[in-house]
Write a structure and sequence with these properties.
Elements lengths: L1 H21 L35 H4 L23 H13 L1 H21 L5 E11 L17 E14 L4 H67 L5 H35 L26 H7 L1 H22 L4 E12 L11 E5 L7 E2 L7 H67 L5 H35 L21
Helix pairs in contact: 3-5, 4-5, 5-6, 5-8, 5-10, 8-9, 9-10
Length: 509
């Protein structure tokens, strides 16, 4: 009998030893980032050298290099390149109080908490308890005849128990890897929200200043219309012209004043939107008028391969792939046995006074305690469905990653072409403003001399107003396109090392 028991324990020990050898072997596929076939250079990269060319690293100047993950590198205060103290202050206010950014920071905390929960599976759980129990044992359990009455008894127990799942096929390790990748994805998404906020603040600020410049144009236009009306009324009083010219001059003045009110309405709405980005109620924020001046900044786009390193949204998509890949390992591990080791030890006695006597000690050890070795046999195809789902999710994330890369390439190309064309267009529009202003001046002079009618003066003035508005709008579009390019590039470029920004909500990690 003893030899039989010894053989059984030896067989069980051999099985446990074999299971412990394979413990921790992950069944997740080897993770590799998919090839996105990045081009060697952007199609719309300016051929001309810029003023900052001597500051660009060889990689940014056109030397190919393989993309390496660097999403965690802080992008820094890129908006300082505009040299605008007001914009700098607005960016800092948004970083401190924007509610969308705070929500993104809270999501990072959530992901880190889930990651901590998943990591707990790598360690045993230990519990302790103390208290009495009342129990009555059956005669059969005590090997007594059925007629024997086993009296009920009260037992006092003070014991600790421990439980540990042996990670036989990497289920726990794959779960931890997936949770870690989810956390990194959440952090990358936070960077993406942060970059979007910074760009939105800069864009709204430049839009507001563009409206100020348009307001300045209309203010000068109203002044010119008022002077023209005085001239027409004087000539009408002198009998040189008919009342028709007076009516036309009044109409042009009223139209200019109405357009001014339209700009005021648009500016108010833009200011309110900027206030919300700063985390303030519109009633708590106002900004003095400051007409926009042309932004003359050239941003080197670098290489498409380096774009994969800088864009936080691309990093988030890549981390989603990594998490999905690890969850394939979790789904595969469900097809294999799981082993849980449990044990309990402490003191047990019939009276509280004898509870902590040395003779009252007791213990119970596994793996035959509790669940022990669990082998899945039949579940109606649930595990097979879970595995197919995990693989499908991974395929979806791969497609999403590649699509995100394509969208990133498009955004950079779009903004590069915008800036290239805008540079030429603003020069052409400046010539149009100059020529239309000269034509308006000549038409007024000729009208005073009676050589042309007032309709010619009106047409010339309208042309000046339109060309000036277009010039101002192009300046605003150029400033916004510059911000968009920086955003499309991930908030940084070249070999410049930006000053890191520490978010208050993420300062303690």
């Amino acid at each position: 009998m003893n030899k039989s028991l010894s053989k059984r324990w030896l067989g069980l020990s051999g099985l446990l030893a074999t299971l412990l050898v394979v413990a921790g072997c992950s069944l997740a596929p080897t993770y590799e980032k998919p090839d996105v076939n990045a081009p060697s250079a952007f199609k719309e990269t300016p051929v001309e050298s810029t003023a900052s060319a001597d500051k660009i690293s060889p990689a940014e100047a056109g030397t190919w290099k393989t993309a390496e993950p660097s999403e965690e590198v802080m992008r820094g205060e890129w908006w300082t390149i505009f040299g605008d103290a007001t914009l700098n202050d607005l960016e800092h206010q948004a970083a401190d109080a924007n509610q969308n950014l705070k929500a993104a920071a809270a999501r990072v905390k959530e992901a880190r908490a889930i990651n901590q929960t998943a990591r707990a599976g790598l360690f045993p759980t230990i519990d302790a308890g103390f208290g009495p129990t009342r129990e009555k044992l059956s005669p059969a359990s005590q090997l007594q005849p059925q007629s024997v009455n086993v009296p009920a008894q009260t037992l006092w127990r003070a014991q600790a128990s421990a439980s540990y799942e042996v990670d036989l096929f990497g289920r726990v390790a794959s779960t931890v890897d997936a949770a870690r990748a989810d956390t990194q994805q959440s952090e990358a998404l936070f960077r993406s929200v942060q970059l979007a906020l910074q760009a939105d603040v800069a864009q709204n600020y430049f839009n507001l200043r563009e409206l100020d410049a348009e307001m300045d144009v209309f203010t000068r236009t109203v002044s010119l219309r008022e002077e023209a009306l005085k001239l027409v009324q004087r000539r009408f009083t002198e009998g040189d012209i008919s009342e028709l010219d007076v009516a036309r001059a009044k109409s042009e003045l009223a139209t200019a004043r109405s357009d001014t009110m339209t700009i005021q309405r648009l500016r108010a709405a833009s200011e309110h939107g900027l206030a919300v980005l700063l985390g303030k109620a519109p009633a708590q924020f106002s900004m003095a008028a400051n007409p926009l001046k042309p932004v003359e900044i050239r941003v080197p786009p670098g290489l498409p391969s380096s774009l994969l390193e800088r864009r936080p949204d691309i990093a988030a998509a890549e981390r989603a792939m990594a998490a999905a890949n690890s969850r394939i390992g979790v789904a595969k591990a469900a097809f294999f046995p799981s082993l849980t080791l449990t044990g309990a030890g402490g003191f047990e006695s019939a009276t509280l006074g004898d509870l902590f006597q040395w003779s009252s000690r007791t213990f119970l050890l596994g793996p035959l305690v509790g669940t022990a070795l669990s082998m899945p046999i039949f579940d109606g195809g649930r595990r097979k469905g879970n595995l197919a789902n995990a693989r499908a999710v991974y395929e979806e994330d791969v497609a999403n990653y590649r699509q995100q890369v394509l969208v990133a390439f498009q955004e950079v190309e779009d903004n590069l072409s915008d800036l290239r064309i805008l540079e030429e267009q603003t020069g052409t529009q400046a010539d149009a403003v100059k020529s239309s202003s000269r034509a308006a001046q000549l038409s007024r002079t000729q009208y005073k001399e009676g050589a042309v009618n007032y309709l010619d003066v009106i047409d010339a003035d309208r042309t000046v107003l339109q060309s000036q508005r277009v010039a101002v709008q192009l300046a605003g579009t150029q400033a916004v396109a510059t911000v968009n390019l920086i955003r499309a590039l991930g908030g940084g470029w070249g070999d410049a090392m930006p000053v890191p920004v520490v978010e208050p909500s993420l300062a303690q990690r």
